[in-house]
Amino acid sequence: MFVKPGAAKVEKIASETHFLTSVVMSRLALHGQIVQFKLSDIGEGIREVTVKEWYVKEGDTVSQFDSICEVQSDKASVTITSRYDGVIKKLYYNLDEIAYVGKPLVDIETEALKDSEEDVVETPAVSHDEHTHQEIKGQKTLATPAVRRLAMENNIKLSEVVGSGKDGRILKEDILNYLAKQTGAILPPSPKAEIVLPPPKPKDRTIPIPISKPPVLTGKDRTEPLKGFHKAMVKTMTAALKIPHFGYCDEVDLTELVKLREELKPIAFARGIKLSFMPFFLKAASLGLLQFPILNASVDEDCQNITYKASHNIGIAMDTEQGLIVPNVKNVQICSIFEIATELNRLQELGSAGQLGTAELTGGTFTLSNIGSIGGTYAKPVILPPEVAIGALGSIKSLPRFNQKGEVYKAQIMNVSWSADHRVIDGATVSRFSNLWKSYLENPAFMLLDLK
Ligand code: COA
């Protein structure tokens, strides 16, 4: 398949941000001419994206694998990289415009190759093989570019992996599980070790400033299309409306946990990780889900079947500049609190950079929304279908409470509000789950007994 050695520069395996297409073949046919670089299929059924940032302008020279632009679908942000060496002749979209899969994104005047390079024919090794295989047999392997890359990096053939996602889609955890089986190792749920990030900068929480920018009063109404993550919110929340929600609230005394976190925070910080309360909330939820697996389940659209999920992929509602997104920490059931914190730091960094990908944003099985990190005491969280339960956490406040001797003490109180799909979960189950979750948080030492 690779005719000439020495032409390695185009053999570079497609990265997560490269769309796996056959453009390399057409590139060779078109060098020295103006090529329309089209937005190729990203997978996940995505047909349109919003152009969030251009990294090039007309007249810029680009090389293969240079970043061209950042686009955002309703599921993830993706950096589009060039498949050509050449000069950008035309950008087809302004910022915030919708770009469509299969339509031109930019025109690139490709560099003419020397005569000696004319007959070189090559395609990215693994992706080409995969595609040919798929097209000939007519069997499409469903997997995101990130999952394909993970498989490539570990020399795993996608055809040998059983996908646990919708329609047999291969998920990142399927690759990790496959690897774990091969090596006999228990792998962490995500590539935490690959990326060492500094801890996120602490937020300034001293005085909430109600208005940070002077309002611009135009006196005119403004209508604009809903895009990106907002569009996704329309879809999921409309689907969520069909679910009869059961609501349940309680208060949790976090006095002991607040002390414990103060002790552990500097130790985590010394290891480069910011330790907030969320990792404890997630771990306690996972320990609770082991006892009440129906809260970590999904139901099909007609509500005929229920699937109990093996993994606790706990979603975290995240407030970002692009809007509300819900990345999830994979396999919380096999993670330590420190590992959860590490992954949460990574997700927050990616979230604030607008770089969360499909791998992080799909596959959630249960959700926690810490709205209390912004403010508020109670909430009425809305289930994220096909999940069946969600919890919202209020702000932790110093309040007077009585101890067992009837004495008043200064307690750290947080309210939790659960919503559960009342078609499949009854109130007593939610209450029992909540009691267990609460007991782990009120007596954090209990968690030690049950940690794996
Ligand atoms: N009450 C009081 N303080 C809280 C708190 C709460 N419920 N939750 C977090 N904090 C504290 C943290 O401990 C941290 O304090 P520190 O600096 O002393 O360590 C500080 O607030 C900042 O925490 P944050 O960076 O927000 O981390 P986190 O792990 O607690 O939360 C997110 C991470 C992603 C959940 C949070 O940043 C976020 O986006 N929350 C909003 C969620 C939302 O919009 N929900 C509504 C969905 S409709």
TrEMBL record:
Molecular function as annotated in GO: acetyltransferase activity; lipoic acid binding
Taxonomic lineage of the native organism: Eukaryota, Metazoa, Chordata, Craniata, Vertebrata
Superkingdom of the source species: Eukaryota
InterPro entries: 2-oxoacid_DH_actylTfrase, 2-oxoacid_DH_E2_comp, CAT-like_dom_sf, E3-bd_dom_sf, PSBD
Species of provenance: Orycteropus afer afer
Gene3D superfamilies: Chloramphenicol acetyltransferase-like domain, E3-binding domain
Protein name: Lipoamide acyltransferase component of branched-chain alpha-keto acid dehydrogenase complex, mitochondrial
Entry-linked Pfam families: 2-oxoacid_dh, E3_binding
Protein location: Mitochondrion matrix
Cofactor: (R)-lipoate
Keywords carried by this UniProt record: Acyltransferase, Transferase
Family from the record: Belongs to the 2-oxoacid dehydrogenase family.
